[in-house]
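Q: Is it fine to ask for two folds in a single conversation?
A: Yes, each is treated on its own. Send the first.
Q: Here.
A: Result:
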Amino acid sequence: MESQTVTCFVRRTPHDLYEMFWKPQSFPLWASGLASASLERDSTGWKAQGPEGPIRITFTEHNALGVMDHWVDLGEEGVVYIPLRIVANGEGSEVMLTLFRQPEMDSEQYARDVDWVRKDLGVLKALAEGEGQESEPEKRDV
C-alpha cells in the first residue's frame, strides 16, 4: 500500500509527551479522525463514534519506546493499522504517524486524510505546548 508519514515537532521531551497522550482516553482530545466524541471501554476493548460510523479500536499497551500504534476496526470494511511514534529530536520530540492508503481510497480521499492527520497533529502540538488550537504543525513529510 502507498503510505505517507506525517511528522510534527513538539517542544516536550519524548517521555513527557508520551505520558500526556498514550492513554486511549487522551486520543479524542486531539485525534478527531479517530473519534468524533469520547472513547468508551467495554468488556472487549474500546469503541467510539468515528467520522463515518461506529468503530472499535485496539491500542498498544503502555511502553517505554514511545509506540502508540492502534488498530481501527471498521466492521465489514476491515481493520486499519495506524503506526504512531514519539521519538527524541534534540530537546524535543518528533511525532510520526504513518497513513496507509486503503485499497478503496481514491487519490483525493487519501490527500484529505493526510491533511486531516496534519491538523490533528497540530492540535496535539498545541495541547502539549500549552498553546491555542490554532497552531499549525510543522509540515515535514517523510
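Q: Second one now.
A: Result:
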Amino acid sequence: MAKAFTSLFLVLLSLSSVNFNCAIKMQKTWCVAKPSSDQATLLENINYACAQVDCKILQKGCPCFSPDNLINHASVAMNLYYQSRGRNPWNCFFTNSALIVTTDPSYGSCIYG
C-alpha cells in the first residue's frame, strides 16, 4: 500500500510541476534581482549574464543605463539572460538572488522584452 501511495504521489508531483512550468510559459514573465541581494552577488549576476547575452542596453546613454545602480543593471541583465533561454524557472535562479515576476518591470524607454 505504501509503495502505491508513493508512486501516486510522485505522479501527482510531476504533473503539478509540468502545470507550473506550463503556466509560467503561457503567462508573460520577467526575471529581476531580489531587493535583498548583496552588491557582490548582483555584480556576479551582471558579469555572468552579460558574458552570455548582449547587454549593450545597459551602457551609458542607452535606455536601461539609468538609474545607474547594481540592482537595476542586474535586473536588466538577468532578464535578458532569462528571456534568451526560454523563460525557464531554472534560468532565473542566480544562486537564489532572483525572482520571476508577472508585472512588467519596464520603465520609460527601458523595455524588458
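Q: Anything structural to flag on that second result?
A: Two points. DSSP finds three helices and two strands in the chain. The first strand starts at residue 30 and ends at 33.
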